[in-house]
Design brief:
The chain is mostly helical and about 200 residues long. The chain is built from ten helices and no strands. The two termini are about 15 Å apart.
Length: about 200
């Protein structure tokens, strides 16, 4: 029987016992690194120098963000499997262009869906939500097949995953009232719970 969202949250605790702060810092570092190249100030600075630099910055941003997304997926999956913390997995996917193309296709398809109508964008985001986990756990799979596999895995689990995401959004909003301190526990728990969700989907394949 597929676990409930409450079970995913509960199970994430046992894999994160006494590791919350370390996992939080590593995830925060990776996310900040991914966001630096997407910063509007950086883009404006490059634009003043040359419009071509903005194109280079955009492509580099997609490459770094995609590689880090796959890295985070690999990193948190190893924790969810009880294999411990392996920092090198966070930045071990810069040797392939597959994360770049996966991130480009994912963001483009979701963005187009959101522009046309919000609902299609949300549905596409849910269907393709496992792409980076698939790439992280199968180095031989192609980008197109990764999207197909994610779509197949999520065909019957879209609503549950959507509710899990909503739950964490609410938690993160509530974390504002703790001046962000609660996020030290929430961020690791979120990513490990998502990794556990993927592992359960994989068992059903």
């Amino acid at each position: 029987m597929f676990p409930s969202n409450s079970e995913f949250l509960q199970n994430s605790k046992q894999y994160l016992s006494k590791k919350y702060f370390v996992v939080f810092l590593s995830l925060l570092f990776a996310l900040v690194l991914s966001g630096v190249l997407q910063d509007e100030n950086v883009m404006n600075h490059f634009l003043k120098i040359s419009p071509w630099l903005v194109v280079v910055q955009l492509l580099l941003s997609l490459f770094v963000s995609g590689s880090i997304m796959v890295g985070i997926s690999s990193y948190t999956t190893s924790i969810a499997k009880g294999e411990g913390i392996h920092f090198k997995r966070l930045f071990g996917h810069f040797n392939s262009l597959k994360p770049f193309f996966a991130f480009l296709i994912y963001t483009s398809s979701v963005l187009v869906g959101l522009i046309l109508l919000i609902v299609p964008g949300v549905i596409l985001a849910l269907l393709f939500s496992q792409v980076f986990f698939v790439l992280a756990n199968d180095s031989d799979i192609g980008v197109r097949d990764a999207f197909k596999k994610s779509k197949h895995m999520m065909s019957d689990r879209k609503m549950q995953f959507f509710l899990l995401q909503l739950r964490f959004i609410l938690y993160f909003l509530l974390g504002v009232f703790t001046l962000g301190i609660w996020w030290i526990w929430l961020l690791p728990k979120y990513y490990v719970a998502i990794a556990l969700f993927f592992l359960e989907l994989s068992k059903a394949e």
